[in-house]
């Protein structure tokens, strides 16, 4: 498991993702994120969560190689269930969740950030939902919480990316800072929230979720249904093979 959770003396819980250089999370780690956020939600000593990452980037989505090197549908079903659990746990966490985003934030990473309450990013951070390249669908629900509707559609259909600095104009990213200042900036905002009455903040989180115009859990689950369809068609498996550089048996192809 490569998800760590540390509760500081100032009631700020820091949850860190670290899996390889790019943080393409395997199934177990998606559930690990969910477990860490559920623990924070239950703990009265946790007033706010900072969700951060080590490595070159924040999150590169699911581990495609794990999926292609696993027989049957077990890894695919696990990844879908794990992502759903992680996104849901962030959204429903009883305390605010601050996403401290460094470098790439791709696919499932957008799901994590889109359901967070506050987003702070480094100057090199960017966001992308390239699922169409791998024959999958998902996280449009969450990208739509970061950018306007037509921008979301353009990014989704083109598998394009948008830098964090461009999200400042939409108000979805609160601050963009040099990478070396990212943790400090996130902790600064977290300290302000942690200093408030936690019962009031927890009530505020529930109230704000209650007036949200979109049911993000239901919306994302709807998207996942199309991923299952694409897998049944066989097109998703072919595209993932191309991405992962594997043949149908799961071994490395000699010509790649």
Automatic annotation (TrEMBL):
InterPro entries: ClpP/crotonase-like_dom_sf, Ech1-like, Enoyl-CoA_hydra/iso. It comes from the Bacteria. Transmembrane segments: none annotated. Coiled coil: none annotated. Belongs to the enoyl-CoA hydratase/isomerase family. PANTHER family: DELTA(3,5)-DELTA(2,4)-DIENOYL-COA ISOMERASE, MITOCHONDRIAL (PTHR43149:SF1), ENOYL-COA HYDRATASE (PTHR43149). This is Enoyl-CoA hydratase family protein.
């Amino acid at each position: 498991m490569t998800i760590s959770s540390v509760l500081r003396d100032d009631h700020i819980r820091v949850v860190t993702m670290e899996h390889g250089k790019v943080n393409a999370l395997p199934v177990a780690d998606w559930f690990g994120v969910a477990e860490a956020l559920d623990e924070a939600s239950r703990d009265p000593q946790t007033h706010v969560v900072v969700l951060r990452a080590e490595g070159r980037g924040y999150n590169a989505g699911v581990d495609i190689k794990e999926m292609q090197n696993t027989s049957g549908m077990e890894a695919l079903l696990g990844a879908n269930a794990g992502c759903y659990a992680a996104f849901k746990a962030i959204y429903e966490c009883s305390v605010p969740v601050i996403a401290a985003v460094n470098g790439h934030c791709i696919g499932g990473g957008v799901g994590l950030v889109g359901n967070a309450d506050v987003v702070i990013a480094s100057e090199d951070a960017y966001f992308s939902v390239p699922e169409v390249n791998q024959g999958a669908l998902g996280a449009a629900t969450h990208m739509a919480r970061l950018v306007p509707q037509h921008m979301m559609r353009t990014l989704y259909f083109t598998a394009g990316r948008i830098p964090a600095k461009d999200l400042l104009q939409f108000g979805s990213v609160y601050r963009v800072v040099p990478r070396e200042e990212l943790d400090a900036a996130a902790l600064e905002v977290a300290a302000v929230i942690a200093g408030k009455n936690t019962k009031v903040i927890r009530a505020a989180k529930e109230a704000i979720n209650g007036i949200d115009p979109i049911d993000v859990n239901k919306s994302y689950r709807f998207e996942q249904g199309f991923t299952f369809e694409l897998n049944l068609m066989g097109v998703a498996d072919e595209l993932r093979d191309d991405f992962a550089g594997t043949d149908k048996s799961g071994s490395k192809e000699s010509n790649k």
